[in-house]
Amino acid sequence: MTAVDDLIDRLESEAATDANPATTPDVGIIMGSDSDLPVMADAYEALDDLGFAEQTDFHDAPDARFTYESYVVSAHRTPELMYAYGETATERGLDVIIAGAGGKSADLPNMTASIAYPVPVIGVPVQEKSVDSVIGMPTGAPIVAVDAGKSYNAALSAAQVLAREHDEIEERLVDLHDEQKAGVADVSAALHDLGIDGFRDR
């Protein structure tokens, strides 16, 4: 049995446990290669900013109510793992998936969207040249996508999906948005009050 087979068995075993949805990851983050991690790390940051916790053990959830998990899943090198991840998403309790991929054949987001349907998938083109591949879905097989490299926005969109059912996440999104607006106001006031030279020197 290969390491890929082990991962597939893990996913299928987790799907068969009928776990309480409150203890399973709410968001799945997948990427085609660990070389995509520098871009996809912003999705982790956004979820952390919203009070989500990373869940690394399906059977031992962190104390946080809302959690996320992550895997490397290559559409071209490990298609069987991609199918297993998509096919078990609902049974494993995932409510939304963020999928990032790079290169001109960035097929992981749209293939996962097709397999995991109707679980929503938010695609992240890791590079500019990946945009057309990620958004190129036929009618009836939808995917939501962000601009190249914008995994932080992808995570915010995932949280927005969950906020339709969980008031607590909606409140966190509003609070985070207010913090960001306040940050812009602080910068604006400093630029005006200090002038450009003082602002640069602060």
TrEMBL record:
Gene3D superfamilies: 3.40.50.1970. It is an enzyme of class 5 (isomerase). InterPro entries: PurE_ClassI, PurE_dom, PurE_prokaryotes. Pathway: Purine metabolism; IMP biosynthesis via de novo pathway; 5-amino-1-(5-phospho-D-ribosyl)imidazole-4-carboxylate from 5-amino-1-(5-phospho-D-ribosyl)imidazole (N5-CAIR route): step 2/2. Pfam families: AIRC. GO terms for molecular function: 5-(carboxyamino)imidazole ribonucleotide mutase activity; lyase activity. The keyword Lyase applies. Residues 25-184 form the PurE domain. GO terms for biological process: 'de novo' IMP biosynthetic process. It comes from the Archaea. Its EC number is 5.4.99.18. Substrate binds at residues 33, 36, 77. The keyword Nucleotide-binding does not apply. HAMAP family: PurE_classI (MF_01929). Belongs to the AIR carboxylase family. Class I subfamily. PANTHER family: PHOSPHORIBOSYLAMINOIMIDAZOLE CARBOXYLASE, PHOSPHORIBOSYLAMINOIMIDAZOLE CARBOXYLASE CATALYTIC SUBUNIT. Catalyzes the conversion of N5-carboxyaminoimidazole ribonucleotide (N5-CAIR) to 4-carboxy-5-aminoimidazole ribonucleotide (CAIR). This is N5-carboxyaminoimidazole ribonucleotide mutase.
